């Protein structure tokens, strides 16, 4: 696990961290590095994910409803499944979904 909180509150590195079923609703995750972390079934509803790094982030069953500033490009690097709840402005047909575990 490598969690580092920089002095700048907008730059959080939570790489390769196990965060299943955690609640990040409404969190300010601008430029956060969540690469390789497991956020399965976590709530990121309403979180601001502007420029967040999601390469290899596991978002199976995660709730991303009303997430702000999230892009298809960010999600293409993440691992999603049919249970992942996307914001209304994201077209899920543009993404590949992982097979159920």
UniProtKB/TrEMBL annotation:
| Entry superkingdom | Bacteria
Q: Which InterPro entries match?
A: 5peptide_repeat, Pentapeptide-BTB/POZ_domain
Q: Which PANTHER family match?
A: BTB_POZ DOMAIN-CONTAINING PROTEIN KCTD9
Q: Under what name is this protein listed?
A: Pentapeptide repeat-containing protein
Specify the species: Aureimonas glaciei
